[in-house]
Write a structure and sequence with these properties.
- The chain is built from three helices and two strands; from the N terminus they run ααβαβ.
- The longest helix is centred in the N-terminal third of the chain and has 26 residues.
């Protein structure tokens, strides 16, 4: 009979916190670079928001209404199956439910 060994892998909370902060910092830097490429067109304010957690389309739509957003730019990951329902489904639901135009871009492959 084969022997089954159990292994547990984990990172201490302090390291996870550092990784999380670095990821958020990197996301702000990446989106900042993209905004700089666009520039500041007259009369247009670009609002960016980076949030942690599982994306929920209702949160995006609430933010759109609260901040009176005129255009949502969102990436689709182009997934299918279960991943589509967890990730890509958010972009689909935002596109169908938003009260403003939605610009859907293809996410990284």
């Amino acid at each position: 009979m084969p022997v089954v060994q159990e292994c547990a892998y984990y990172l201490p909370g302090s390291i996870l916190g550092d990784v999380q902060r670095e990821c958020i910092k990197a996301a702000h830097e990446r989106i900042g670079k993209q905004v700089k490429k666009i520039g500041k067109p007259d009369g247009i304010e670009i609002v960016t928001d980076i949030r942690e957690g599982i994306p929920v389309y209702e949160v995006i739509l609430e933010e759109q209404k609260a901040k009176d957003i005129d255009l949502i730019v969102i990436a689709s990951h182009g997934t299918t199956g279960l991943l589509h329902h967890l990730i890509g489904g958010v972009a689909d639901k935002v596109t169908r439910s938003a009260t403003c135009p939605v610009y859907l871009v293809r996410g990284p492959k």
